[in-house]
Known about the structure:
With 327 residues, the protein is mainly alpha-helical. The protein contains 10 helices and 7 strands. The N and C termini lie far apart (41 Å).
Amino acid sequence: MLLTHSLHLVPDDQRGPCPAMNTLANHGYIPRNGIASFEQITLALMEAFNLELHFGAGMAANNMLTRGNPFVDKVSIGGESSLVPPLPGKIDGPVTGGIAKHGRFEGDASMTRADAFIGDNRDFQDILYDLDLLQLGKFGDNSPDGDSTVFNVPTLIGIKKQNIMMDQAANPQFEFGARRMNAAYVQAAFLLNVFANGTTKQATLPIIGSFFRNQTFPPNWFRAASPVTGVINGATVSQVMAAIPLSPGRNNAQGVYVADPAPPPPWNSSFACFAYYDQAANTAGVLVNTTGILKKNVELLTGIQFQNALANPGCDQQVLPFGPAGV
Length: 327
C-alpha cells in the first residue's frame, strides 16, 4: 500500500530534477523535507518502485558521492540546504549543492528540465513536457481500452533525439559526456520499466503525467511485480542508444559538437565502462584521501559503483574518483 502524500511544502523543503525522488519525498518514502541518507534512498527505491537492491544502491551512491555529504550520510534531492553541511575542512568546497547542482551528475538534454546554461534545470517545465508529448503522438501505442496513449521505445527515441538536437543548438556549453548520456538514457528507460503500471506493464499518458507533472503516484498504480534490475532497464537503454548514433561529447567554442576522447584501457571496452570511468573523472578526488568514517563511507559507495560496473564486459578494474574539487 502506498503511503499518503502531501504537497504542502514548507520553505526549506527540497525538490529537484528527478521525478522519482520528488515522488518518494511527497509520499514520505524518504523524509518529506527532501534530505535523505543513502540507506533511506536505497530502501525507498526498493519498497516503492521495486528496484533491485544493487541497481537502486548504485544510483543512490552516485548521488551521495557527487552532490551529498558521505561523512554525515545526507544528500539533498534538490538544491543547497543547511541540513547538508560541507565536507570536513570544506575539502570539496563551501556547499554540497544537492543533486540539482549542474555538472557532476545532473546534466543537459533532460526530458522536462532546461539545461542549466539556458534556464531552470531544477523545476518541471511545461513546454518541454508538451514537446515530449508531440513525440508520444507520433510514435505512441493505443491502450487496449482505447482511452489513452502508451509510451513505447520509439517514443523514447523520438524524445531523446529531440532533447539532444534542441539543446545542442541552443546551449553553447552543451555537454553530453558518457556519464550524462548514460543517466539521460537510464532515466528515459524508467518510463517503461519503473513508472509503468505493474499490473498492465503500460506507461500510459495519465501515469507519466502524474509522475512528471504532479510528482505523485498515479491512482490505482502498482509497482513492478518483480524487481527491476539494471539489466532489465539496460535493455531499453541499449535500444534507445542504437537508434541515436551519437558519441559522448560536447560543444566546442564554435558550437560544434565534438566527441570526447575514449578512456584508457580497459574502460574503453564498452559504453558502460566509459560511463563508469567518466563518472569517476567527475567526482571529487579529495574523497579518496580521507580518514575515519568518511573514508569508510567513501569506500562503501565506490565499491557499490564498481560492483555494478563489473556486470559489463571489460569493467574488471576499479577506478576511484579523481575529479576536481569545489565544482
